[in-house]
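Record copied across here:
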Amino acid sequence: MKCDILTLAGLWNSGPQHWQTHWERKYPAWTRVPHRDWNNPDRDEWVAELDAAIAECEGRPILVAHSLACMLVAQWAQSGSKLKIAGAFLVAPSDVEAASYPIDANGFRPIPLAKLPFPSIVVASSNDEYVAPDRARMFAQAWGSKLVEIGPAGHINGGSGYGPWPEGEAMLDEFCRDLNP
């Protein structure tokens, strides 16, 4: 893949069987944005950590986010940062406003619903325990994102059987090609 990638894991980080981890092993130049505390995310801290990671990039990176990190991208987009990204690949956005969200959202509420100032795609499942399909559709529409619904795929993580996830990698590759014709 010929694009600069920053991977953004969600709550609790992505484990060894998660597609993000598989992709990072396959593409060692890709960088996972680090957080001081993966278990108790604080919006302001995570936004600052993302901004610092973007600042380290030579060009405008593509953000590859999962779960809570999709909300992080939306929060970063409205933060006023002067930095630019090429686009965002947003997989299984967690609904931090839902009663089913497993922890205190620590500032991630309300969910930003402004159009994102960069190209984006939302990949959603029809049976994700952290976001109802209608909410995933609403996020994609509000953000101006292309929506790809992949059917019953759980939370699209290692626990749902999405390890290497070649279909997702192909979607990301196509997204990169569309950004860099």
In short: The mean pLDDT is 94. The first helix runs from residue 19 to 26. Residues 113 and 153 are 25 Å apart (CA to CA).
